[in-house]
Amino acid sequence: MNRHRLAVTWFSTTLVVSLLAMLVPLPAVLQPFKPYWPALVLLYWSLESGERVNLGMAFLVGLFADLLDGVLLGEQAMRLTALVFIALRFRSRLRFFPMWQQTLAVLALLLNDRVLLLIVRVFAGEASPPVSWWFSPFVGAALWPFLFLLLDDLRIRLRIA
């Protein structure tokens, strides 16, 4: 298998696994702690391989996530597009942050994602979410260094640019 095909396969596999991880059911007690996996994986690829991820790709991944999750069509597409836009806009700075600063930036991006989701759901007529609804971005930010190092190590081992 040539390098380009391996790179595309690895990229696609990580996105599919993130979409499937989003669907894993958790007990009601743990549900607020479930990170937004597609956002974390798209953030990784936005930072490490900006030419591979663009706004159209984020929108398509979001549409697939909407269809799989059964939420309002376009909800996650809009959120992921906004997240990738911000990540690509500040990519040159974020890539060279120390890990603790990068984790704080990821936390800010995930909190921004939650605010967008709150706005969409309020306009859709849903009730305000409980306080535990805000735990997910913090869990995602706590997992970011481990996810980043895991994906980076596998990318380097496979010699994917």
TrEMBL record:
Signal peptide per UniProt: none
Assigned keywords, A-Z: Cell inner membrane, Cell membrane, Cell shape, Membrane, Transmembrane, Transmembrane helix
Compartment list: Cell inner membrane; Cell membrane
Membrane topology term: Multi-pass membrane protein
Membrane-traversing stretches: 54-73, 94-111, 131-151
InterPro entries recorded: Cell_shape_determining_MreD, MreD_proteobac
PANTHER family in alphabetical order: ROD SHAPE-DETERMINING PROTEIN MRED (PTHR37484)
Function: Involved in formation of the rod shape of the cell. May also contribute to regulation of formation of penicillin-binding proteins.
Family, similarity comment: Belongs to the MreD family.
Name of this protein: Rod shape-determining protein MreD
Organism encoding this protein: Dyella ginsengisoli
Gene name of this polypeptide: mreD
